């Protein structure tokens, strides 16, 4: 661990990317081996601490992807997912053993509804399963993450017992997922505080957040969990993931970097790779990024309204809290449309190589507004045609 940017070693938050596992579980988002290797390469390069590369028991393709990513990774820990079943754990161990640093991530449900309908097991039986499967994983490798699936709908007393059992059996990271995206930030933070206060061996593990976005709270919940003492955040590029998705990595990282005053944590991810990573994941998964998506959406650094464009031309901090180049976007764009003002129009003409006198500018601006009322997108070529026309009228 290193002390970085915002604070001391204790403030370091580990970024665990699960685009290739939870992200790929989005219906229709499956990716080829080649695409997965490219995504893993950029995640490794950008400084993601842990890459969850897949679910090795799920298929031979998944096994191969995890094993290949494990062989190729340079810096990141490579994790594979395993249910609380010996065959899953052994297969996962086989896949991650090639990594310089490998991790087995095993999980079991803990909530009453999952115990009753999914597992048909009692609380005591599940505690035995935790002890047995975590110990088996720990026999294969030292770095073991254990997750309590549906933790946020699990009574706290039982969750404490399950966490204690997992740590006693050798788990080094404890993940408490909001599997169905049900929690609110205050509740999620409180859960981490309670568990860390009540479980006797809690200080032997790093706690992790894993949030789904069913109520649109995944990023807020993740940051709240960190305020409650968690130091690992599980997230995905573009927020890809089951149902409404997981917490978006780019939002988490930029929230921490931009608001260090109230989020005093450090993370080692270099944001300038984010735009490239986002495009890569959108292309591989076939899930287009919405225009107004924070950080990586096409409009995240675009301004159309006259008031905003005027402000931006005077000082970018009037309407931008992050610099586009920091996240790999070449520059802010001032989109010419019906909301644009005279100042931005004049600036655009200058960029295109035109300087008009007051009267010609006035007329060109009037015609531009008429055009923008009729056309959704006004391109540079439209403006050039309009100005050329104006110049030829003036010279007749
Ligand atoms: O959402 C979830 O509970 C999961 C676990 C497998 C960690 O993805
Ligand atoms: Zn999940």
From TrEMBL:
Coiled coil segments of this chain? none
- At the top level of its lineage, which domain of life is listed? Bacteria
Query: Which catalysed reactions does the entry list for this protein?
Result: 3-methyl-2-oxobutanoate + acetyl-CoA + H2O = (2S)-2-isopropylmalate + CoA + H(+)
The protein's enzyme class: transferase
Q: Which cofactor does it need?
A: Mn(2+)
Q: Which UniProt keywords apply?
A: Amino-acid biosynthesis, Branched-chain amino acid biosynthesis, Cytoplasm, Leucine biosynthesis, Manganese, Metal-binding, Transferase
Pathway named in the protein's UniProt entry: Amino-acid biosynthesis; L-leucine biosynthesis; L-leucine from 3-methyl-2-oxobutanoate: step 1/4
What does the record list as GO biological process? L-leucine biosynthetic process
- What is one term from the GO cellular component aspect held by the record? cytosol
The record lists Mn(2+) as bound by 22, 210, 212, 246
Domain Pyruvate carboxyltransferase, first and last residues per copy:
13-275
Q: What GO molecular functions are on record for this protein?
A: 2-isopropylmalate synthase activity; acetyl-CoA C-acetyltransferase activity; manganese ion binding
Q: EC number(s) in its UniProt entry?
A: 2.3.3.13
Q: Briefly, what is this protein's role?
A: Catalyzes the condensation of the acetyl group of acetyl-CoA with 3-methyl-2-oxobutanoate (2-ketoisovalerate) to form 3-carboxy-3-hydroxy-4-methylpentanoate (2-isopropylmalate).
**Family, similarity comment:** Belongs to the alpha-IPM synthase/homocitrate synthase family. LeuA type 1 subfamily.
Q: Indicate the quaternary assembly.
A: Homodimer.
For this entry, the protein name equals 2-isopropylmalate synthase
Q: Which span of the parent protein is shown here? A: 1 to 396 of 521
């Amino acid at each position: 661990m290193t002390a970085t940017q915002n604070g001391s070693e204790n403030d370091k938050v580990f970024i665990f990317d699960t685009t290739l596992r939870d992200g790929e579980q989005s219906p229709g988002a499956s990716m080829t081996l080649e695409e997965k290797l490219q995504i893993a390469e950029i995640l490794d390069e950008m400084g993601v601490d842990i890459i969850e590369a897949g679910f090795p028991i799920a298929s031979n393709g998944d096994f191969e992807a995890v094993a290949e990513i494990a062989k190729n990774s340079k810096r990141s820990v490579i994790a594979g997912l395993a249910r609380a079943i010996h065959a899953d754990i052994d297969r996962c161990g086989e896949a991650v053993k090639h990594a310089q640093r490998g991790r087995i991530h095993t999980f079991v449900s803990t909530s009453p509804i999952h115990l009753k309908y999914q597992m048909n097991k009692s609380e005591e039986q599940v505690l035995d399963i935790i002890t047995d499967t975590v110990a088996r994983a720990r026999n294969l490798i030292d770095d073991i993450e254990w997750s309590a699936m549906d933790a946020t709908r699990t009574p706290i007393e039982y969750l404490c017992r399950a966490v204690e059992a997992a740590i006693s059996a050798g788990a080094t990271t404890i993940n408490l997922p909001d599997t169905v995206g049900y929690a609110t930030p205050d509740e999620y933070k409180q859960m981490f505080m309670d568990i860390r206060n009540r479980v006797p061996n809690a200080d032997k593990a790093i706690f992790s957040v894993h949030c789904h976005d069913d109520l649109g709270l995944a990023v807020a919940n993740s940051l709240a969990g960190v305020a409650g003492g968690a130091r690992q955040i599980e997230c995905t590029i573009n927020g890809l993931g089951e149902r409404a998705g997981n917490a978006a990595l780019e939002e988490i990282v930029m929230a921490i970097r931009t608001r260090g005053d109230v989020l005093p944590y450090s993370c080692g991810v270099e944001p300038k790779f984010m735009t490239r990573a986002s495009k890569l994941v959108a292309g591989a998964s076939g899930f287009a990024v919405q225009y107004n998506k924070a950080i990586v959406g096409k409009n995240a650094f675009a301004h159309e309204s006259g008031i905003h464009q005027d402000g931006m031309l005077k000082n970018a901090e009037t309407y931008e809290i992050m610099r586009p180049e920091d996240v790999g976007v070449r520059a802010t764009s001032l989109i010419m449309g019906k909301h644009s003002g005279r100042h931005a129009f004049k600036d655009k003409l200058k960029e295109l190589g035109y300087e008009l006198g007051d009267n010609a500018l006035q007329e060109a601006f009037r015609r531009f507004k008429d055009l923008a009322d009729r056309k959704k997108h006004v391109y540079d070529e439209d403006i050039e045609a309009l100005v050329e026309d104006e110049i030829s009228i003036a010279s007749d």
